[in-house]
Amino acid sequence: MIRLNLFLVLLAVASAVGTVTSNHRARKMFAEIEHEQSRMRDLEVEWGQLQLEQSTLASHARVEKVAREKLHMKAPAAGQVMTIEIEPAQH
Amino acid sequence: MKFSHSPVLSQALPAWRARLLLAGLLGGFATLVGWSLYLQGFNSSFLQEKGAARYSRVIEMSATRGRILDRHGDVLAVSTPVKSIWAIPEDAKLQPAQARALAKLLEIDVRELNHKLATEREFVYLKRQIPPDVAEKVAALDLPGIHDQREYRRYYPAGDLTAHVLGFTGAEDVGQEGVELAFQHILAGKPGSRRVIKDRRGQIVEDVESIKSPQDGKDVVLALDSKIQYLAYTSLRQAITANKAKAGGIVVLDAKTGEVLALVNMPTYNPNNRVRLVGAQLRNRALTDTYEPGSTMKPFTAALALEKGKYRFDTLIQTAPGYLTIDGRTIHDAEKHGLLTVAQVIQKSSNVGAAKMALSMPREEMWSMFDSLGFGSPLKLGFPGEVGGRLRPAKSWRPIEQATMAYGHGISVTLIQLAHAYLVFARDGDLVPLSLTKMDTPPLTGKQVFSAQTAHEVRAMLELAVLPGGTAPKARVAGYRVAGKTGTAHKIEGGRYANKYVASFVGFAPASDPRLVIAVMIDEPSAGVYYGGDVAAPVFSQVMAGSLRGLGVEPDAQQQQPGAGDAEAAKESM
């Protein structure tokens, strides 16, 4: 009888310790996921800002300015445009 | 003496004492049961709430507003988070040095800052929508009673280029103008909330439930082509400066689908910085302002005359002596022409010729044509302040009015309505509705207004107008066949025609298989020239040339033989 009781007590203690550990681990993991989620939000914010930067840098006004002033490009005159026909691809 | 014979024991206690004790104990027990019943049963929800309030918190989860993209996926409007700095004035007791540091970071005056903090209110914004890195510096100062709050700010990378199409949002991220307002229900995100458990240090330890998951706003893909939009913007701005004009507008439509590829108004504004904004800059003229279109209406009169079989392409009309008197009012031509065919009436833009054609038709027929072209009723694109223009019921038309309407006076339209109506000539006489958003499956055919044959005949007449001998040779585009019509209309001021003009040009290209319809309107050109063919046609030509090239549309005009020098230049550049 005493053996059985002892065994049951041990079982109860082990389960209690297990509960505590798993709870602790759950909290740790939860903190981790929270951290990752906030990182995700930060990255989303950064993405938005990069999009903004990209479209500012690629704005037609800026591209034209760079093409004209830095690269000294100009629009072709009517006689300088040649039309070429692409033959339909052979299969 | 034996213990059992102790006299103390032999004295029996009175029975009531035991009973009293028992009753007392029972009574206490009953009270406990009752109290616990009360707490558990009747009062439990209140107590549970109190308990939960100690550890659980409801957290707001913000949702972002959708982006606005052009047809190629370029970003036209995007929301990024910013911080707003606010204070509880009662808690914010700042040292003078601290106040100076804060004011410097927020770029406001120290006196203004102190004034804001001196208020009786419990909550005051110190500065809204500042960049996150500045907010971090403010937080690093660690001042009492100063807090920050995350908000979203809308940015428009294209700035004043797309101002009228996109509109803008207010401080609460709600659309107030343009597409931002028209598509508010799609763009707006729905913020959510969730319940969490926080520990003593304020850290979230457990997610209890998600009360409402946040829904980010959806992106809106416009039909706009930012390349064509840029081209239209620069060309129009140039023309307005060169002609010292008051205002102007340009609309570019895809003739195949009815999509709006570009829409620019002048004067414009920068939606990213809206201080010192005046009403004139805000006006989305192409949709909200009507004007008398003038000669750009003549092709419709001619089309109706052809459609009803009264006239043919080459029917002769006597326009001599260059004026026509109806009911005591006289219609003039700018030049005397004599005997003209219907095609020449359009080419030379004869008012008398157009009036004579109109007067041969019942007024109801003209009215129903104007009506089916969409004049007189708003296009319903969803923009605020869209108007339909003035088209009076046919019953009230007098003959002189019917005659003047034939050449675009006594009727008023918006620029986008006119561009829309020209779709009938650019297509096979049918009219598709306009679309601001990119369409995956555009309608193949629309409402038939004229027969395909009539549309093709008018198209040929409109081609004559841009050839030498027409009113708008400046609208020509190298390599492409162009068709279009000029308009030069007097403006009405105080009920009378004033010596101010609206110069316009509406046309399309390539004429063999029209791809684009472009309408240009310049309000009050005052640098000497004011004819549509001199002021508006060059803008049309510039935008059309660039757009067709950008879209890779095959040239349909006969190639000019490049000179030997040109051919060599072309080789060198390759």
Alpha-beta classification of chain B: alpha+beta
Encode the helix/strand succession of chain A as letters: HH
Work out the strand percent of chain B: 15-25%
Measure the end-to-end span of chain A.
88 Å
- Which quaternary structure do these chains form? heterodimer
Largest sheet of chain A: none
List keywords for this structure.
heterodimer, A: 91 residues, mainly alpha, B: 574 residues, alpha+beta, Beta-lactamase, five-stranded antiparallel beta sheet, 36% helix, elongated, disordered C terminus
Please give a structural write-up.
The complex is a heterodimer of chains A (91) and B (574). Chain A has 91 residues and is mostly helical. Chain A has one domain. Chain A is built from 2 helices and no strands. Chain B is of the alpha+beta class and 574 residues long. Chain B has 2 domains: 60-221, Penicillin-binding protein 2a (Domain 2), CATH 3.90.1310; 226-274 and 283-551, Beta-lactamase (3-Layer(aba) Sandwich). Chain B is built from 23 helices and 19 strands. In chain B, the strands form 6 sheets. In chain B, strands 2, 3, 4, 5 and 8 form a 5-stranded mixed sheet that branches. A 5-stranded antiparallel sheet of chain B has the order 10-9-19-18-17, sandwiched between helices. The A-B interface holds A 26-27, 30-31, 34, 44-45, 48-49, 51-52, 54-56, 58-61, 64, 76-83 and B 64, 67, 74-76, 78-81, 132, 155, 157-158, 161, 203-207, 226-227, 230, 234, 478-479, 549, 554-555, 559-560, 562-563, 566, 569-570, 573.
